[in-house]
## 1
Amino acid sequence: MTIEDRLKKIGDCDIKIIKSEIVKDAKLVIFEFDEFDTSAAIIYNTGELFHLKDWQGGVPATQKDIEEFDWLSEDGKDAIVLDGLPRLLI
């Protein structure tokens, strides 16, 4: 399943990736949904995906901005930001 397909399933909307930037062992992906709105996701090299809690707020412009936002795991669990990237505590 592609990143677009996974995000489409979460948001129940069409997704278009507009920017992808490598950050540590992951990618920061900025995507467009509903043709005009933008949001972001972090996808680790392992395939683990986190997305912004609020898709209608701003998006991180750089890696340093990631910690300023609230993140959810792909299955909707609240994430913490550790070492600059969202993570789940198990």
## 2
Amino acid sequence: MFTSFGDIVSKVLGFSTETKKSDVGAYFKTVQGTIQETKDKLNKIVADMKREGNPNASATETAVKTLIDNTLDKIIEGAKTASEAIGDASDPIGNVGATNVAGASGTGVNNLVKGIKSIIDVVLGKEGSAEAGTDKKADGLTSRTNNGSGEAGKLFDAANAGDADNAKKAAADASKAVGAITGADILKAMVKDGSEAATNAAKANAKDGTIAGAITLRAMAKGGKFAGPSADAVEYAPEVKGAAISAVTKALDTLTIAIRKTIDAGLKTVKETMKINANDTPISPDQSAPKATTN
């Protein structure tokens, strides 16, 4: 019933410098379609049980409705909203401006956040923290300052990321932030800060989680772009792209696993209600509805 999620995992792990924002949109669309298929199959099983007069039909219908209302529908709607927010954006997730090109927040950020929040509210629980990591920048490990040169906040600057030396330091700080936290931390930071993520990432004492969340949103958002340096810096763009790809991969890999675990737990409850072995072969509406067992 739930085999296609393996394909999603492989696609997430395959993200690269060639990955487009629309590929992230396609990921969410696949989540939407996969969960919708699961919902449809569950409804068909209930219908088949009722048609065959299965004595467990009523209890199963209640369990299925609970799973659909409390979990599946929220994931479906969230994935749909996130997918539509990104749309067919053809620019890469590691979209870095050329020399003296400002950063751009992109469009649809609020809806992207709204969609992701709808999903993680039901699959992540208490896992992850938006305040994860430290406020120490990569260069010198001193606390980050307000819009400080050579810090990750400069990736979102309205002018540029600084001269060649400072831009490279900013890129290294971004990589440090992403590497210091988990995918769950990133997801929590994304939905906590939303459209204010980039602003918060440039504030004094910004935590790694805040920065990584902002990087992930900028990487996913349609039209989102990281600021370019004020002078040519060959190493800058590849480092920023690497940080963006790593952040998106961490976030979506974690999201995929969390969705899978949540759905598996829900299906186990449904199986128990149907009075079949919860460890048996996955439910499939292509098979006959399970025969009732009584105690």
